[in-house]
Design a protein that fits this description.
The complex is a heterodimer. Chain A is an all-alpha fold. Helices cover about 70% and strands about 0% of the residues of chain A. In chain A, helix 2 runs parallel beside helix 6 (about 160-185) and helix 10 (about 250-260) packs across helix 12 (about 285-300). Chain B is about 70% helix and about 5% strand. Classes of the chains: A mainly alpha, B mainly alpha.
């Protein structure tokens, strides 16, 4: 095809990537130091939402315990840095990821053999057990948590510079997005997606469904640990609310907003979510009210999220403009798990 | 406070508070089971209706009855929650029926957060205290153990709710329709059961029960917008341990969990925060379908 149309399968992602990168670059160069700090917080929540959306949205595994891995990543980094004097940022981030993977592996081991809602509620119960433990023991800082984390340099970059730190996080988000893109396209991702659509059929074909789900939860746990570690670096402090299940629902809601099953949905969703909260930051409770109303409204109007609604909108528009051939074969419409 | 000086007294000490807490859990979980049984929606927002009930009871006891009557806060909470429930069924839940269960769960969670945020706007973020109605404020001495009259009151109300629900489901035409829908929605509809009417009516009853439970617990805790989040997890623990959709299972599970919590609160305080979660994890590992659940009732999400 010589003429590129908006409905073409490669063009739409390409447009999305360009818009995203331009937005990242513009924010990085235009925003003041204060707003860069806000943007850094949003980048962290994007990572967190990507982690949660991968297991729940793409993998169809109802895990409601990701906040435990997020909190573990953050707490371990804060504790090692403040009490043990670790200053190697790269190593600390790696430790956060490993903590998330180990935590999620242990969870998967504890709830092995369970499916569906029972699986979800058990992961939630394990998360709440961890929360109760962290908020009551003095080893973990009790209800106050830890404060006073200092950002050490990484690869010669001074992360205390707001702009450098923003770019550092932006690069991590881009790398993670590419990684997720690869995983979704891989044989593993294809089987996982098939598992979400019909676990029974995949099992009949001979694939170890539970093992696929376990790996999805572990990958998601590792990413949550990464997000937690970066949260600690961003705010310099951690507290038990990182482990609380309602706080752990924010990335899920952000995922719903953008579209949990899509690659870019969590990015769009977490940006809007964080943006609304910031726009009403004079009163935190008002921001919470508006953001939850927006999530509910979007959920009822576009159950697949903004990104999916936009994509299908563009698709139908281009069908109307460009005749019958515009629907690309690589985009089957999926409505139901 | 009587000193627990012999073994019998020591064992008896936590039983009544445990039963009271179990009854409270039961009233919450009963509504949850009811809406799940008919609408097949795992209703996270049930916790929000519970929280709303506690706030309404606070307002009613402060402004209306000057904390004197027993009935007004409870009735106000139940009626208002039922009314809000009817509206949300029309606006939100009706759109969720067509979704798979994970999505409808997430939708009800979004609604949960809307209610929590609205409650913060109306009643503020600092925890509120509600007084026990003076009539029920006294103490009783039973087998040498000092107990609150209010705890006995909760147990009586809880038992009345259980018996009432039981009779409603087994003796009335409406209850028959509810059971028919729970057993096989399509077949019931084909036989002429008006499922939409059953849906909103059972939902209304479920919300009223949540409000009632919220009003009952209000004098015992600090009322804040976090209240729903804590109790909805416990209510789901009851429902899962009892077996999804099993009313009898929920009765046993809630009483057991209430007793577990009260015993650990009295004798093993370091374990108390985890007691219910650990019970749930261990029990569901051994019996994934709960006490009286079956594999058929397990929902894939």
């Amino acid at each position: 095809m010589s003429r590129a149309r908006l409905g073409q399968s490669w063009l739409r992602p390409a447009v999305g990537v360009v818009i995203g990168l331009v937005l990242v670059a513009v924010c990085g160069s235009v925003l003041s130091a204060t707003l860069l700090f806000v943007a850094a917080g949003i980048l962290v929540s994007i990572l967190y939402s990507q982690a949660v959306s991968f297991s729940i949205g793409f993998g169809g595994v109802a895990t409601f315990g990701n906040q435990a891995f997020y909190g573990m990543g953050g707490y371990l980094v804060a504790w090692l840095s403040i009490n043990e004097g670790f200053s190697n940022t790269g190593l600390l981030i790696l430790i956060g990821i490993v903590a998330g993977i180990l935590g999620s592996s242990l969870t998967v081991f504890l709830v092995r053999g369970q499916t569906g809602f029972v699986f979800g509620m058990l992961t939630l119960a394990i998360g709440q057990t961890v929360y109760e433990f962290v908020s009551s023991t003095s080893v973990a800082g009790g209800t106050g948590g830890y404060a006073g984390l200092v950002r050490g340099p990484i690869l010669g970059l001074d992360l205390n510079n707001a702009s450098t730190f923003y770019w550092f996080l932006a690069v991590i988000v881009i790398v993670v997005t590419l990684l997720l893109y690869g995983v979704r396209r891989s044989a593993f991702g294809q089987v996982l997606s098939a598992t979400r659509q019909s676990a029974l059929r995949v099992e009949t074909l001979g694939a170890p469904v539970n093992r696929y789900k376990a790996v999805a939860v572990m990958l998601s746990g590792g990413l949550a640990g990464l997000a937690g570690a970066l949260f600690a670096f961003t705010y310099g402090a951690v507290d038990p609310s990182m482990f609380y299940w309602v706080a752990g629902a924010a990335p899920i809601l952000a995922g719903i907003l953008g579209g949990m099953r899509t690659l870019t949905g969590p990015i769009v969703g977490a940006t809007i979510y964080g943006g609304v909260i910031y726009a009403f930051s004079l009163s935190a409770t008002v921001g919470q009210l508006y953001v939850s109303l927006i999530v509910l409204a979007i959920f009822l109007l576009m159950p697949d999220g903004i990104v999916s609604a936009l994509a299908s909108g563009i698709r139908s528009l281009s069908t109307r403009l460009g005749g019958a051939i515009a629907r690309s074969p690589g985009q089957p419409t999926e409505r139901k798990a | 406070m009587a000193v627990a000086d012999n073994l019998g007294t020591q064992i008896f000490l936590p039983i009544l508070p445990g039963l009271a807490e179990g009854m409270l859990l039961l009233v919450i979980a009963a509504g949850l089971t009811l809406t799940f049984g008919t609408m097949r929606i795992l209703n996270m927002a049930h916790g929000a209706f519970f929280m709303l009930g506690a706030f309404v009871a606070y307002s009613a006891s402060v402004s209306w009855s000057q904390g004197r009557t027993v009935v007004v806060p409870i009735a106000a909470a139940a009626v208002l929650c039922a009314a809000v429930g009817i509206v949300s069924e029309r606006v939100v839940y009706r759109r969720l029926y067509k979704f798979d269960s994970l999505r409808s769960l997430l939708g009800t969670f979004a609604l949960f957060l809307v209610f929590a945020a609205v409650a913060q706007q109306i009643w503020g973020t600092s925890p509120l205290g509600v007084n026990i109605p003076p009539v029920l404020g006294g103490h009783l001495s039973l087998f040498g153990v000092d107990i609150l009259v209010y705890q006995v009151f909760i147990i009586v109300i809880g038992a009345a709710v259980v018996i009432g629900l039981r009779l409603w489901l087994s003796r009335t035409r409406m209850g028959l329709e509810v059971r028919a829908i729970a057993a096989d929605r399509d077949m019931a509809a084909a036989l002429g059961v008006r499922s939409e009417r059953v849906f909103w009516l059972t939902f209304c009853v479920g919300c009223a029960l949540a409000g009632l439970a919220g009003a009952l617990i209000a004098p015992l805790v600090e009322v804040s917008s976090d209240l729903g989040a804590d109790y909805i997890v416990l209510a789901f623990a009851v429902v899962l341990i009892g077996g999804l959709g099993s009313f009898g299972g929920a009765v046993i599970a809630s009483l057991v969990l209430g007793l577990v919590d009260a015993f650990t609160a009295t004798y093993l305080q370091s374990v108390e925060p985890y007691a219910i979660f650990l019970t749930m994890i261990i029990f569901l590992t051994v019996r994934p379908f709960g006490l009286f659940g079956s594999a058929a009732a397990v929902i894939e999400i």
